[in-house]
Amino acid sequence: MKDRRIIGDRRKLSTAFLSMQSIYSGRRETIRREVDKKKYILVDNYSPRLFIILLLLLLLSITDAYLTLSLVKVSNATELNPIMALYLEHGTFTFFLEKFLFTSVAVFIFCVLNNFAVARVSLALAIIFYFGLVFYELNIMSNFFP
């Protein structure tokens, strides 16, 4: 069968890094067909809502790191996570950097796999966990600094 297109296949050309199409392409942000939802499809057009949620997770992790370091210095508290406790022994900068890197990898994975129910549930649980942890740490700090 002969290809009767006037213009060549537009999908063969790549989109420029900084262009209106790369910022807002008009493409769908979700998978619409039920058959396609059962496949492993990674969407490259992310919503601002997802960006805000992932940024919230990163900020909660940084807040947790700061509060943990404050509690360790002021009240002789200990880090319960054995992996992070190991990094804490190497210094505060190493602890903070590793905490940030671990969370950044998780944020990247949540971003890429945002169409999967497991990733969405895990992201929600991570945010709930960090909110609880930050609240707990703030509660401890309020007992030491009334």
From TrEMBL:
**Which keywords does UniProt give here?**
Membrane, Transmembrane, Transmembrane helix
Chloroplast among keywords: no
What residues does the DUF5658 domain cover?
A: 55-139
Report the Pfam families cross-referenced here. DUF5658
Superkingdom of this entry's organism? Bacteria
> Which residues are listed as membrane-spanning?
50-72, 92-113, 118-136
UniProt-recorded name of the protein: DUF5658 domain-containing protein
Species of origin: Candidatus Sulfobium mesophilum
